[in-house]
Every structure is written in structure tokens, then in C-alpha cells.
Design goal:
Elements (H helix, E strand, L loop, with lengths): L1 E2 L1 H12 L10 H10 L5 H15 L3 H6 L2 H8 L5 H16 L5 H8 L3 H6 L6 H10 L10 H9 L8 H5 L10 H18 L15 E2 L3
Parallel strand pairs: 1-2
Helix pairs in contact: 1-12, 2-3, 2-6, 2-9, 5-6, 10-12
Keywords: 4Fe-4S, Iron, Iron-sulfur, Metal-binding
Protein name: Base excision DNA repair protein, HhH-GPD family
InterPro entries: DNA_glycosylase (IPR011257), HhH-GPD_domain (IPR003265)
């Protein structure tokens, strides 16, 4: 069956239920989680996130005040701790300029917000799009590895890196913030179930479907 992006989301939601993503209690926790998950698995990232919870209670000003050496120690379970700790420091220093007011960040940066995020140390395209969607309330498609693998199974070719899908996949007005967040969560939950092992996709409810990107 041929599916539009909207129909793909609807089918995944019907089969899997709501994803509940991003699993966090605050926007500061989402920021930390988005940085910690880079180039590692959820288990390692969760250990580092738990360290930050204990040290800061995810109060943005408290995270901003942590010395770099302590941030490195908190980050260590997630790997790449030097780069990730600098990213944490850079993001919260930048947010401090806006009084940690996320709505003010959006209002003052407008269409340049993604570029501003990409200019921060350690923030690449995937992390920037996660932050846009889950922290700043701007619906954005996250073209992560699970999304590229899924879309390849659904017949979309040439998905070699993040940008190769991001430039071809724009969310329509159908995807309000809640749906954009849920769609990302569903894709990642689907990936954990069906895209980690060769051949598992053929056992999924999407086997035989084809995606048509408008």
C-alpha cells in the first residue's frame, strides 16, 4: 500500500499507540538527554542524565553554574565526555542570555533559531531538530538513523546521511507540535523493535508498504 507521510503516522499511531516522547520531566532534562544520546545508546545516556538530575535537579541556572570538571564527570557514562560537556556548557551559557526563557529564545531568533543552535559547540543537525521540536515548540522532522532506515525499507532511496532525508521531508500543517513529537517517538520505538536486526522489518505491520514523499 502506498502511504503519504500523514498516513504513515496514522498507521503507526493506530498500531503502536501514543509514544509519550520525549520521555522527560522538563525541558532542561530534554536538552541534557539530547546531548547525552549522541553516539551512544539509551542505557549509557540515561546514566549520565541521572547524574545531572542528582547534581542539578535540572534547574537551568544550576546547570549553567556547574564547573566544567564536574560536568565532565557527570557526562562520562555517556562517552565522548569532553565534547558533550562542552556542548552542555555552551547551550546553557547561551540560554542564560535569555534568562532561560524558551519562549523569548524563539521570539528573538525567529527563523534563525536553527542556525543559532547549529552554531553552538557540539550541536549538530539531529540535536538541533530535536531541540526545535521538544524544547522550543517548533514542529520539525527528525531525520535520524531510524527514520532513514525505515524510509529506505519503505522505498525511499539515496538516504545516505542526515541531510539527504531532511531536505526531502518537510512536515505539513497536519503535523502540529503534538503529532510531530509523537511521530519522532513512534519512529524510534518502531526502530528499536524492527530495525535493529536484519529481516525483522518483514515481520512488522509496515512490511509491503511504500512511502510517497510529496
Amino acid at each position: 500500500m502506498e502511504l503519504t507521510l500523514e498516513q504513515l503516522y496514522q498507521k503507526m499511531r493506530q498500531e503502536m499507540g501514543p509514544s509519550g516522547w520525549w520521555p522527560a520531566d522538563s525541558k532542561a532534562e530534554i536538552i541534557i538527554g539530547a546531548i547525552m544520546i549522541q553516539n551512544t545508546n539509551w542505557q549509557n545516556a540515561a546514566r549520565a542524565v541521572a547524574n545531572f538530575r542528582q547534581a542539578s535537579e535540572f534547574l537551568p541556572a544550576r546547570i549553567h553554574q556547574l564547573p566544567l570538571e564536574q560536568i565532565q564527570d557527570l557526562t562520562r557514562p555517556a562517552g565522548f565526555y569532553r565534547n558533550k560537556s562542552r556542548a552542555v556548557q555552551a547551550v546553557f551559557a547561551w540560554l542564560s542570555q535569555y534568562g532561560f526563557d524558551y519562549q523569548r529564545v524563539v521570539a528573538e531568533n525567529g527563523d534563525q533559531l536553527r542556525d543559532q543552535l547549529l552554531a553552538l559547540h557540539g550541536i549538530g543537525e539531529e540535536t538541533a531538530d530535536v531541540l526545535l521540536t521538544f524544547v522550543f515548540g517548533i514542529p520539525t522532522f527528525v531525520s535520524d538513523k531510524y527514520a532513514r532506515t525505515l524510509f529506505t525499507h519503505l522505498g525511499i532511496t539515496g538516504l545516505t546521511d542526515y541531510r539527504s532525508l531532511a531536505k526531502r521531508c518537510r512536515l505539513s500543517a497536519y503535523f502540529d507540535l503534538a503529532r510531530a513529537q509523537d511521530f519522532h517517538g513512534l519512529i524510534d520505538e518502531f526502530g528499536k523493535q524492527y530495525l535493529r536486526s536484519p529481516g525483522r522489518f518483514q515481520d512488522s505491520f509496515l512490511a509491503g508498504d511504500r512511502l510517497v514523499l510529496g
